[in-house]
Amino acid sequence: MHPDKVRSRYSLASVPVWWISYVPGVEHYAPNAVGILAKLLETFIDENSSGCVVLLDGVENIMTNIGFDKDLLFVEHMNEYVMSRKAIVLVTVDPECFKPSEFARLERSLESLEEPELRLVLENPEQYPRTGIR
User: Fold this and answer.
1) Are strands 28-29 and 19-20 parallel, antiparallel or unpaired?
2) In-domain check, residue 134
3) Tally of domains within the chain
């Protein structure tokens, strides 16, 4: 979803929203530029060292452009990066976009949260500052 629509739909006027897209624009990042995207997220996390949440939506788009193995490396890197910081990275995933073997590998790298668990984490972030929940 375009960043302007995300901001208006969810009342996120002061929240940074970056778009993973080939469409040129401010705060738009190509899905094959995972190094730039990783650095952007690392900087954001470091600048918000008292705690932050990053929603990473578009993993399937990245995979389509760079391949599953490189996409998994990116997700694993972000996971490892946040583990020693007061940050949570939420990765939305559509299992239908992956081969069963790929989805199984992705699941081994991340902790799955169903909606009720996710709400609990978001409503009580102080309980999860360094657990690796992502």
Assistant:
1) parallel
2) no
3) 1
Three-class SS state of 62: helix
Structure tokens at 124: 């009580």
Question: What are the structure tokens assigned to 117, written together?
Answer: 């668990």
Q: pLDDT of 117-132, one tens digit each?
A: 777 766 765 655 433 3
Domain assignment of residue 107, given as a range: 31-127
Q: What is the pTM of this model?
A: 0.78
DSSP state of 32: T
45, with CB counted inside 10 A (0-12, 13-18, 19+), is buried
- CA torsion 129-18-73-108 (nearest 10°) is 50
